[in-house]
Amino acid sequence: MFKVKGKGELLSKFEKGRIFAEKEQGLLNRRFARDLGRCHAVVGNFVKNPARCRTKRSTGRPSLLSEGDNRKREASNTNKSCTKIKSSLELEDCCMGRDE
């Protein structure tokens, strides 16, 4: 049979090149997945969307608070001065609360 690589090992540039070349020849994913020693699902996912390969997926629950909500919350829950709040939130220099 063939040895399947462990979970989490990324496709090398060589493997990606072989997948593109063999796909252009019209071979089936399962066939050249077996030749590479990879799972057919890995090859199929790469063929479907090569740009997604090696990109970090967002994990966790998205924040319900906007950037403005975070600033308001920080200002209301602390006894910090405006400059300290601005530096802790890593805001750029701007005129806060002034109309220009």
UniProtKB/TrEMBL annotation:
Stretch list, region Disordered: 53-79
Entry superkingdom: Eukaryota
Protein name, per record: Homeobox domain-containing protein
Organism encoding this protein: Haemonchus placei
